[in-house]
Structures
1.
Amino acid sequence: MISFDYVPVDDLRAASAAGAHAHTRFIAGGTTLVDLMRLGVERPTTVIDLNVLARKDASLTAVSDLPDGRLRLGALAHMSDVAWDRRVRDRYALVSEALLLAASGQVRNMATIGGNVLQRTRCPYFRDVTQACNKRVPGSGCGAIAGRNREQAILGTSEQCIATHPSDLAVALAALDAHVHVRGTSGERVIPFTRLHVVPDAHPDRETVLRPGDVITAIDLPSGIPARSTYLKVRDRASFAFALASAAVALDVSGGTIRAARVALGGVGTKPWRSPEAERALVGKAANDAAFHAAAEAALAEARPHRDNAFKVELAKRTLVRALTEVSA
Amino acid sequence: MSIDTTRRAESVGEPLDRVDGRLKVTGAATYAAEYPLHDVAHAVLITSSIAKGRVRRIETAAAERVPGILAILTPQNAPRLPGVQAGNTGARGPAARGAASMRVPTILQNDEVHYNGQPIGLIVADTLDHALAAHDVIRVDYAAEHPVLDMDTAPRNPPESVHPLGGARTFRLGDVDAGLGAAEVKVDHTYTTPLENHNPMEVHNTLAAWEGDRLTLYESTQGIFSVRNTVARQFGIAPENVRVIAHFTGGGFGSKGGAWSHETLAAMAAKRVGRPVKLMLTRRQMFGPTGGRPRTVQHVTLGAKRDGTLTAIRHYSTSNTSTLEDWIEPALSQTRMLYASPNIETQYDVVRINVGSPTFMRAPGESTGTFALESAMDELAYALGMDPIQLRLANYAEVDPENNHPWSSKSLRECYRVGAEKFGWGRRNMAPRTMRDGRWLVGYGLATATYPARTAPASTTARLLPDGRAVIVAGTQEIGCGTYTVMSQIAADALGVPPDRVTFELGETTMPETPASTGSVTAASTGSAVYQAANALKQKVVSMGLRPGESYESFIKRSGGQPIEVTISARPGPEQQQYSMHSFGAVFTEVRVDPDLALVRIPRIVTAHAVGKVLNLKTATSQIQGGVIWGIGMALLEETQIDPNNGRYLNADLAEYKVPVNADVGTIDVHFIDEHDPHVNAIGVKGAGEIGITGVAASIANAVYHATGKRVRDLPIRIEKIL
Amino acid sequence: MHDLRTAGATPPFPAAPPPPTAGDPAPDFELVANGTATRLSSLRGSPVVLVLHNPEWDPARREQIDAFNRLLASLPAAAEQRLITVGAAHPWLELEFDTSRVALPVIRDDDGSIAQAYGVHDTPAVFVIDERGIVRWTHMGRTPPREGDIIAALTSFAARDEPRSSSWNRREFIATVLGVAASLTISPRLAVAERIAAASTAPGAARAVTLNVNGRQLRLTLEPRVSLLDALREYAGLTGTKKGCDHGQCGACTVHVDGRRTLSCLTFAMMHEGQQITTIEGLAASAGTSGNTLHPMQQAFIKHDGFQCGYCTPGQIMSASAMIHEPWGAADSDVREAMSGNICRCGAYPGIVAAIQEVRANAADGEHGQ
Ligand SMILES: Cc1cc2nc3c(=O)[nH]c(=O)nc-3n(C[C@H](O)[C@H](O)[C@H](O)COP(=O)(O)OP(=O)(O)OC[C@H]3O[C@@H](n4cnc5c(N)ncnc54)[C@H](O)[C@@H]3O)c2cc1C
Ligand code: SF4
Ligand code: FES
Ligand code: FES
């Protein structure tokens, strides 16, 4: 690991200003950053510790009700604390489930939800500095397209990169139309969650619309979410593994008819994959197998598998159908 | 011979808590590189990023500027080891066969690269972080060549030699073609098992310290003497001048059976910098430099009469090896001895590709071999419409088919019976896809387990201290099998004292020599030596005048207060040639398969094993459970993946090389058949370390077939194979 | 006088820590001589007798050798040997005996930071530190300790109650005596503050870090890139916490930070100043058990054979002992899920689950009984 300057900050404005410099990274839980620094993938010369700030400013770690019914998650709140929060469990089951199905008890105790949505892909070529990877070194090639790609994405891929976005939470947040509060060098802004991440296209090194110095301060969950929601995750191990395919869904069914639907997929997209196509296929239909299958077909219509991951097309469809079946049961 | 129990209740067999338990649960057990030495320097391995070619140059200038750097060893500047023949390229051929010189590129004796991830250098610094910082700026210039990576398209060769574990390259009994001609039913399929890596939780690590020309290695190993001998040979010094110490080893499973390269490199570096050197591999560096299980492609043909009797068994196995040496997965042993067929033929082939050398991995051979054979037997049972247990009983081998020797003991019938009863095999409906629990498809599977019972020469010292306590010393290893505990129990019984009056010491090459803890030999071999040494000690004390009923303590007190000591060497007896010695067992698995999502869950496995005497019910149960969990990993999860273009190990970590986690494991109900084996060795022990994994993968695959009607012949059984 | 001095900045303390007592880890400090750095923790492997005294008491000077001679003569290995010469080997002073040598460095503690770390203010002090860096015996005051006390202290831990005990035999037993010429009379804090100002210019440089580990203040000199795990294992000598992957994928490095189970490999040590860190070595004490009593989870692991090789075990137990305070359900399957971040390659999972369930059941009984 290269040598770096460690800078604890206790002021948001200072954090943002310091974070705007080149070769600078914030550290929250560190479970992505330290991992990647040890691999030599991340090489910051300055690391700005947000935890001092978090200890000082309780709003950054709190889960709080907003007057209009929304729920605000402090960006530096730990995954475990958000997952176990009563309000989150009752009103946003898919968020709680996505968190509890992610990583391990220890990682969830350390990791923050702001860090979670900014975690980097688990593509093995990205994580190994001896390999070609356009995301890590633009223009160096894509080891995965030429090599093994069982775990890679089938939606939102480009000629340059086919890496999946690994976060479970982000899939749930995409389904919910959450909003991200950001504090940057030029003040605060709010970004719709579905616009936080970008697909790789020609620039797989760019993963989000965040600018240098931007600190995520909070994530808002909207009100009026259908009470029945779930996050279903399919993986190789029974636990402690990233998704091969996952689905975050929320359905509002009354009188047997689907009034509203939220659908997002994980494990298959280069970004947390909201599927308006699937939602369109559901709304107004009877909540039955036929509608669910139609939604799955719509969601995966654009899927482009590679050598080793063709199975993900079928798996993602079945995962979505199962999730929809469960919430409408 | 059995253990003398005239004095007190036996401790052997009791589920005694581990005597080293307290050390392990408090963090006080000390593992290799944790020994607190004075002035330790830290080393980091440099490994290749190409799979084949040569190291032209390692650019170290930037690395040398990192503060605290003490030395950087490269193929260019590393000392030439006197014991490694000059000019030996490490290439194949008779000259390369000496164990010490086979992997010479990995100990920097030449510039060849044989696989991606091969050791090609070493950085030594005052702190680990400085060594890592230097590693970060190392640049290597290679002359790369095109590697051979695809086993299926590379040439198959007869192996130069087969490890004695595997038997002869070709074995023929009777006439298999004639037997197949006479068969009424045949099955003929190819089964494959992937590259795997052991991944003990403690990575390979070593702490090397020289004092003049004497070397001490604190080493994470299953074989202190084997490491000592290899390193001594390489450095051209007497074995007595190398002391290897391993009081606790954090798992090995075969990967720590002997020296690889890190011991030698650490010793070289320690000499160069004049300080002790600590070298701890990274998890990634456990893929390649420390061995793994090779991929196997096994072709099994079975012929049978309608009544199930086998007329022929043919089993060919091809496994990959590295380009450094031939190591054959001995996957055919069980096929020569498990079923009474008049016609049996087995043959090994090998494919040399640019990966790290394979080696012994938990039940080498029997784990992969039983997957193929016991899957094929299940297929035959279905082809015949016969219950799988009935089929096996119809071919029960009353003597060893390979050599007609009687068994030293065999209770396999009991294993099937007890296992079936505890499992509820009778509830099974033979037709696939007929059992359900809600949405889940339920499947029951069975397979036979077997592993040879080996005994090797071993020595032990037994000493009675003036306070009446006994110290038993043997240079063996504690790798998790409970060696400290069971040896204390054996000695306590022989001496007629409670186990807490006995201290067992192990893990140093200055102690009496015993075999490596591989192949399930420790309990049998070292256990026999401990038993004989303790008995000899007791006899000596009796001959010196111990009165009946008198305590050791009072005897020593009245006879001069000096400790009394004996050292014995135990060797296997002539029975080894007269009997076939094997453990047996039966593994029953229940799987649940989600028919849509292709999730496989294993709520329960029931095993019944006959392993001779069970020394400690608690540790033996743990051994079998551990083996079964390895079988679950093998069946469903484990596969080392390499990049098809450059041979890089792709999943060289514990997130992507998936070993079972707690949630993957349901209940594992372990049963032992009471078995008295008068021939196998002095204490009647056949060993439980490896047999636990054998048969498990087949049992699970058979259950998955029963649940789904899908026969998976290519491990691991991943979602995409049954979707 | 040798050119040895302490290096590494030291942050100001709200209050000086009390001196370590028997059983505490010895505060670490760094010694630099001609660019070669070493530290107290690198002396592990042999016991250290640390003598803090005023600068005018310089044991390396001829006229004061007798005092040290007496001290050295009290060591078991050197019982009948006399100090005959003072060499000038770098960076230690090699003291030759008839058959062996003892390294005798004398460090100038000009800013008093070592004395401060050891809670020594104005009286000379002697600390006997075992080969693992744990303080075994202390003496403070103007009257010198009796030699017999030092012998007793050194021999008390030479014979250790472990299976390997007789392999650490007395013959190999050589203690290092370290003299610290401390300015015990000046206010250490003042000097410390100046040093910080000087040191804070070098980015990424090592600096003094104080970690509260198992209830004790551990002073280590660390670069920012040192993980909490390496700080514990390589700098503080607390090797009970294991490294299985160094990437958060196995759980072997689990410790408690402010009571929560945390992976020490995925966090930098510097981020944890001011937090309570508990490792396996301090678990029993953290639960209020005294003496030799184990934490209930440790006992249950032994009873249910929740381990084989033992390498994942400290992490399993740290994880388990925190997991039982998390809001999991009561079923075995809840325990399995909650414990899936702790890999056991030996496959001791059935015993681990049984152990945890027993502890949970006992805890629940205890609550109902109240
Ligand atoms: C073994 C393992 C398994 C895992 N499995 C899963 C899984 O199954 N599912 C899953 O979803 N995740 C999984 N993870 C990923 C884990 O959830 C993330 O590493 C974690 O959530 C990141 O949060 P953090 O606070 O630790 O981030 P950090 O590592 O501290 O930061 C990550 C990145 O985000 C930036 N950052 C952090 N906070 C902010 C902020 N407030 N504003 C701006 N930038 C910020 C940092 O600069 C850094 O670049 C796993 C991780 C590990 C190690
Ligand atoms: S898929 Fe993306 S992350 Fe993976 S190697 Fe290709 S460019 Fe890199
Ligand atoms: S060493 Fe930290 S999780 Fe493996
Ligand atoms: S006890 Fe060996 S890894 Fe768990």
2.
Amino acid sequence: MLNFYQPQPDQGTPEKITGKQVTLQIDGVDVTVAEGTSVMRAASQSSVKIPRLCATDQLESFGSCRVCLVEIQGRKGYPASCTTPVEAGMQVRTQSDQLAKLRRNVMELYISDHPLDCLTCPTNGDCELQDTAGELGLREVRYGYSGANHLDSGKDTTNPYFTFDASKCIVCSRCVRACEEVQGTFALTVDGRGFDSVISAGQGEDFMSSECVSCGACVDACPTATLTEKSIIELGKPEHSVVTTCAYCGVGCSFQAEMKGDQVVRMTPHKQGKANQGHACVKGRFAFGYVTHKDRITQPMIRNSIAEEWTTVSWDEAVQFAAQRFTDIQAAHGKNSIGAISSSRCTNEEVYLVQKMVRTGFGNNNIDTCARVCHSPTGFGLKTTLGESAGTQTFASVDEADVVIVMGANPTDAHPVFASRLKRRLRAGAKLIVIDPRKIELVSSPHIKAEFHLPVRPGTNVTVLNALAHVIISEERHAEDYINERSDVEAFAKWRNFILDEKHSPENTADITGIDAAELRGAARLYAQAANAAIFYGLGVTEHSQGSTAVMAIANLAMLTGNLGREGVGVNPLRGQNNVQGSCDMGSFPHELPGYRHISDSQTRQLFEDEWKVSLDAEPGLRIPNMFDAALDGDFKGLYCQGEDIAQSDPNTQHVEAALTALECLVVQDIFLNETAKFAHVFLPGATFLEKDGTFTNAERRISRVRKAIAPLSGKADWQATMAFANALGCNMTYEHPSEIMAEIARLTPTFAGVSYEKLDQLGSIQWPCNAAAPEGTPIMHVDEFVRGKGFFALTEYVPTDERANRKFPLLLTTGRILSQYNVGAQTRRTENSQWHPEDIVEIHPHDAEERGISQGDWIGIQSRVGETVLRAEVTERVTPGVIYTTFHHPVSGANVITTENSDWATNCPEYKVTAVQVSKVSQPSSWQKRQKNYHDEQLQLLEKALQ
Amino acid sequence: MRKDSITRLLAMIDQIALNMRANGCDHEVAEQVAQHLEKFWSPKMKSAVIEHCSTGPSEVSAITGKAVHCLHLIQKAKSS
Ligand code: SF4
Ligand code: SF4
Ligand code: SF4
Ligand code: FES
């Protein structure tokens, strides 16, 4: 629903959640609020606005401006309402002649040092200073306008998204506090004293060269035009807005998309969003320019072979062409010769439709999703041990944690808004254990120092987790009562014998893991003794040949110490993409129907057969890597790929490219001509999250609405495109709106039974399971018992990967992500975010670099047993000797040319995190890079001709 | 199916068996591996390894041989 633009309400100071309520009188009216609430917030709750400048409800009150003074009966003087907590029976007066005079005096001082160019100021009409002057009835400034002021101070325009105009600064320090309290970066300081005070980014640096990570919290907090988005300066104030959900990472931040006509001018993090509570990162807040980038393809296109030019056609022609090709392929090669891959970036409703189309239109179960290559081990591991393929907590639950383990994840880069919350908790005293081959930012950053950093050798996570469990159980630090009550005791007894074997001790595993035994023991003790301990993990756990085992070992640790089923604890997978959780929930795996029910279960199948009016194949279909192999075998000829760039993101690029080339018909639905589309025969233009309605489900199982802000550039949202294709294949899909798709999902899926668009509008978001037993959703899972009944301690035997360092390939390459770029970079590379990360680089330890004569910035060739690529070197101690690290945000980097097709034993999730390599100094790109460039140029020419 | 593909499938079964080896005796592990394949593999992948293991001598590890045999029994039971 579109609304007229309104700045989000600001109650002045943060909400206090305490059990006790307090009643006081404000201007003669009784007000009841939680104990600890400020007088300012209490007044705001009864619709009385007390003027303010240095206070905002995103920050703890500071009490510097003295504009918010009030009178309190029985108290001397004029206390600041923002710093004064309510008391029972308190009688507060917010307006009097004396208060008006005092406030005007303060305001006059501020205004005497402020330019009076309101009419031409970019935030005219949306400025708290201007509003407050109005509220106070300021009519004159007795001090004149030419005191010792900052009117000539220059502008810092170095940040691509916002400017800092020092002449407008009132030094309220809201920005400084936002950077500290909300973001946790501590990039800003107040330099100088009194009238000479100025705000500065770092040590006299500009914003771009400072520590600033461009989260925008300071811009939001600033009550003047000092910190203002460049889009607002250029385009002016928005006039309408809509609340939607970020389409980047699995934190799932809620945003107010603010628009002028059909142009988005600003994304403001939504304070009511339960995942982010008004915070955001540089991707979600600023990197939306790709939506209207010139590279967007908005017309359907077809061609007979990948060597031909594209022809732009109508939607109808495109889907008929694709449907005919797929039908012909099935007629010639059998029912199982076609399949589809759906995207975790698309909405729940869209991925649901793709699997429905495959199961009803293709008549097989050849449907997989990109979660295959990231968190499929999470699904398997958590289902096996706890009974549900999902994380157990809310993000907010970390506020109650005393000890936090972060394993194989780099939240400050990949899940920044969660990282800010975690940092806040750590600054308040919680202890941190980091298990990661790299010294990630959390190991040591302003006001944060990990208690333990266990720099695990890539590929040995399971050994570390087993060693932690060994210490806990051999030192009898486990939660015996919890285990007896909550777990399958027979399985526990078996596991106990297994884990007590001395081969799992920290001392006996140190050579394998590279971790000092005493450090590991210390970490195990710290985790076990905590009243509340939580584990957060990422792809550094799952993307291994033992990914599923590691997830089970994590669940074992949590059960062993009784850390499941309440606030502050749990097992929390940090999902990579916005809708990884949702795409898995929606039946996008080849063996499962929505709600994680196996396709061989005849009762479940019957339910869907009755609804869909077809009979379903009871056998699992092909997973993504199986599809590639089958394509090379000549058995698999047609693929519909919705919004995933497999040619860039999947391992062993040359293998993937060969498989794609072998297809007779590849249908790609995407917003850009991505790497995969260069091998396609049909291109269906995709829509961005701003162009459609639907829902995303974040890493906390939180279902949030995605709301259409602008019309789809191609005329169809992705659910409509899939529907058109499905109908061309003979399906009968007649949905008018995604809410009807959600209604069908709710009818067929017990964990979604209570979900509807009406309820989402009413509650803002819902964490599944949501049904009769939990009508408003389930924030914390496994409270009284595990979903599977008794928790299952799975045996977690460590099986080393085949991908081992040897004489030929002595180093281990591991991969990761960077803050400013998102996955294959298709979106963020087409925004100013590229200023922070214009190319992928490879990190190498000084020792390894020196041995090979490599210096900072050199081009180095990286060879693995499957391929070679060339990247620029960064010599750094962030990585340990023997390990190199890179990102994969740019196609030309070819990071996946070197990763192998080794995969997790249970789910085939690729082992991106371990590749044995050799590196050497080189002077030119690799042969793959040269080929890639030629192919890219050729395909662009074929496209340009079509679009002329 | 290409020889490469069969080799890869057999290697995958070896890998699954290795990861399950702590779960019990060879017989139990073979049974669990077969259940895993039944649950997650497509019919063509299952039939390819069954066929490969039942047509003459092949370089298959003992545990994989056993697992594929169990898988064969599951398939037979299903079709009867
Ligand atoms: S930049 Fe804005 S928020 Fe920061 S001190 Fe100046 S006026 Fe206050
Ligand atoms: S944008 Fe974020 S990181 Fe940068 S100064 Fe502002 S609050 Fe700090
Ligand atoms: S933290 Fe994730 S969801 Fe939130 S704004 Fe950043 S990218 Fe978007
Ligand atoms: S708003 Fe209370 S002192 Fe500034």
